[in-house]
Amino acid sequence: MPSKNMKIVFVTPEMAPFAKTGGLADVTGTLPRELRRLGNEVFCFLPKYKKIDVSRWPLKVEVDRFRIPMGSEMELGRVYSYNDPGGARVFLIDQPEYFSRDELYGTPLGDYPDNDRRFIFFQRSVLEALKALRLKPDVLHCHDWQTGLVPVYLKTLYARDSLFLKTKTVFTIHNLAYQGNFPPDSLPLTGLSWDEFRLERLEFYGKVSFLKGGLVYSDKLTTVSPRYALETQSKEYGCGMEGVLQFRREDYVGIINGIDPEEWNPEKDPELPAPFSARDLKGKAANKAGLQQENHLKAEARTPLFGMITRLADQKGLDLLAPAMEPLMKLGIQLVLLGTGEEKYHELFRNLAKKYPSQLAVHLKFDARLAKQIYAGSDIFLMPSRYEPCGLGQLISFRYGTVPLVRETGGLADTVVNFDSQSGGGNGFVFKEYETKAFLEAVDRALRAYEDPKVWTQLVKNGMKCDFSWQASAKQYAELYQKTERRPVTV
Ligand code: ADP
To answer: CA angle, corner 21, sides to 16 and 22, nearest 5?
Structure first.
């Protein structure tokens, strides 16, 4: 049966290139294009943050001064639109008091205290904007807690609205640890009834949980890798939501994220000192030499060069890495680290970089250009994550001929296959236990493989041949949209 083309509306707090703090933005920035290539129409809604550089995109006022119910009051908003050629029609919800701030969700001191208000406003605005635009979605695809109330609204306050009678909802968890849990006083602002404040619905340990709303009310749930879909149903990884996810397991799947092979292409990357490909790896050595030189590391072609690009947070394995740093340095390897995050890690790496200047270079900032140089110039890329819903770093590393060394969790477990020295198969190094010792053993295996250039080249090529482009994942989403059925809320 030929599949029907659909009108798909993404509701998301982030979208590249407009506003990004993590992998979610890459997903919502790329997936719409692929869905469109498959013949669908895609629309994206996100807040009009101050960070969005309006001089770069010609915006048009789409709905001027429309009224949004917030508790017993009405507040004003505005909708701008931008047509991404080849991609989605993007709608930006404007309310300067809420969104014209330096950051998306908060400062290093903590979350903005009115995040409940800000994202209630955003979610209500999306539904009101769809009505004002007479846009009838086949699917509303919501992303992370900031959009969890949208499926709730659709089955409560907007249940009788003719525009949404056939609309199906899909909710994607990009990181279960972020839940949008607020004090009960937030509930009146949502306009929802107190009947929603119970265990089977939005109540979560005495709070109103936007994420739980999405998990309970959406017709289908997805997350960004099959392994993470399984892990999140366990106590260890479920962040308290494991019960809801077990309950919804028939409707819950993992679809691995892809990367854009054009954006991440070492053959045509203008940021790199020399191009290279799986067929011709010569340029890779020039990238390594360049990275060593710029970072004042010794120019030694045969010294293994490790790279790491990450948020400096425990999730990313930093508490495991910290005690491994001295032993790593004693092995004589080199490491270039790029990242920002928790102050205690900034301090740790600043001190280590002073102690080992010819081996360790540390950049405590966000820098997309340097990131590419690290991906291209390193031999081994570290991702010892405690948990990792999908992870993009390992996929980018494959493209750039850099061998990932990862912990077996989430999307890392689904994409990195441990190297087998007997058969020459595999594309990286994997360790299981979340322990410094297990990590160092994997480093040891990697260094032994690195000693034999022939073996190593094989391993590099194995990774470069992997295809983690968006095409396959987009097809899975399109199939999921087709087979999603509207389901009643059963509890
Ligand atoms: P998460 O979304 O959990 O932070 P992902 O691996 O899914 O982790 O995506 C992180 C993305 O952000 C990757 O593309 C990575 O290269 C990039 N990134 C992370 N930190 C930095 C940084 N300091 N500078 C440049 N890019 C970064």
So the answer is: 80
